[in-house]
Amino acid sequence: MEKLFKLIRPFVHGLPPEMAHNLGLRVLRHGCLPPARAGAFPSLEIEAFGLHFKNPIGLAAGFDKNAVAINALLAQGFGFVEAGTVTPLPQPGNPKPRIFRLRRDEAVINRLGFNNRGLEYFVKHFTRRDKSKGIAGANIGRNKNSDDAVADYITGLRTVSPHADYVTVNISSPNTQGLRALQQRDALTELLSALQQERNNNVPLLLKIAPDLDDAEMEAVAEVVLAHHINGVIISNTTISRPESLIGKHAAQIGGLSGRPLFDLSTARLKRFYRITNGKIPLVGVGGISSAHDAYIKIRAGATLVQLYSALVYNGFGIVQDIQRGLAALLARDGFTHVGQAVGADATMR
Fold first, then answer.
1. Helix H segments across the chain?
2. Residue 349: per-residue pLDDT
3. How confident is the model at residue 69 (pLDDT cuts 50, 70, 90)?
């Protein structure tokens, strides 16, 4: 798989990023990409949010916004796939171009703006998934022009929760004006209180936060999350910061930065949140993972699960199997028989 992607990468990267992405989804959706060779790694199996994951490596939201290729994506070796972000009503998102590759940085900047076909279309396709293939979550957001953000999230939760293995509340995209304000204590308390009242089944509820929160803001988020018994936190979304080390010609573009330059920041915020909560809540580490070593660092920093996305742009789907093999080897090297034993191993060190 890796050799095949290296052959076709010049063609793929010759296309505009959004066109290449849509082509990749079409290939997956129509079964044109063979499934990964199944590998048996018992040490990677783990429980989180009351769910059993065959491995802790997930696909982050944003790749399959409309839930059209869940089965094919799980067949690439992911332990779980998160579809969305989906909003109650369809919306086109921000004007194009809105995705930019920073090849030399192995990064991506996007300002998509929750472009998706709405809940009705999302659920129609989400319900076609084969539950035996693995865990699938749904990531929900608010419409850009909505006058009532809380109502949008309630609608999203009510609609997707009967079908999804877990639901993620996305309040951290930088590409919808005012969205990140929902991370502030009072607004977050109002939102999570309303969602808890709406939740009438046992679907796990996760919250996705930004890496740009300062320590005081993170402590406030942690307090609210624990008080409302949220099942997990995803750390993190893309960043609006720009490391001085960026050399890509699109580095000044407006939007959220993802990929390798996000790794250190998102990992530091992950470790900080793990310490603030004393490991009481499962965390999902996201941001800049492109190798087994990266995934292992996230896990040792406090992540029970990890997700990737931008690395697929530069490495293809073969990276999923590479991370599985490499992570199992790293665990064995350090004397861990089970990935759960490594969670937070470095975060507890002072």
1. 2-14, 17-29, 70-74, 118-126, 149-160, 185-198, 215-227, 263-276, 292-301, 310-315, 318-333
2. 56
3. very high
Helix (H) or strand (E) holding 178: none
Of all residues in the chain, what percent carry a pLDDT higher than 70? 97
H or E stretch covering 257: strand 256-259
Predicted local confidence at residue 30, as pLDDT: 86
Residues 6+ apart with CB under 8 A from 32: none
Contacts of 74 (CB under 8 A, 6+ apart): 80, 81, 133, 134, 136
Domains and CATH numbers, the chain: 2-342 (3.20.20.70)
Is residue 243 reached through a cis peptide bond, with omega within 30 degrees of 0 on the bond before it?
A: no
Q: Among residues 146, 161, 172, 173, which one is catalytic?
A: 173
Per the annotation, the verdict on 245 as an active-site residue is no
Per DSSP, the residues of 182-212 read GGSHHHHHHHHHHHHHH--S---EEEEE-TT
- DSSP per-residue string spanning 87-150: -SS-B--SPSP-EEEEGGGTEEEE---S-B-HHHHHHHHHTTS-GGG-EEEEEE---TT-S-HH
E strand or H helix at 170: strand 166-170
Average pLDDT of the segment spanning 252-281:
96
Q: Can you tell me the mean pLDDT for 37-46?
A: 88
Quick check: 173 and 256 in contact, CB under 8 A? yes
Identity of the residue numbered 350: R
Q: What is the mean pLDDT of the chain?
A: 93
5 vs 114 pLDDT, higher one: 114
In one-letter notation, the amino acid at residue 191 is L
- Side-chain-facing half-sphere of 321: CA atoms under 13 Å: 14
* Cβ atoms < 10 Å from Cβ of 15: 13
What is the DSSP secondary structure assignment for residue 239, as one 8-state letter?
Answer: B
Q: pLDDT for 116-131, tens place per residue?
A: 999 999 999 999 999 9
The residues with which 102 forms a beta bridge, in sequence order, are 107
Average the pLDDT over 235-258 and give the result.
93
Non-local (6+) Cβ contacts of 68 within 8 A are 25, 29, 125
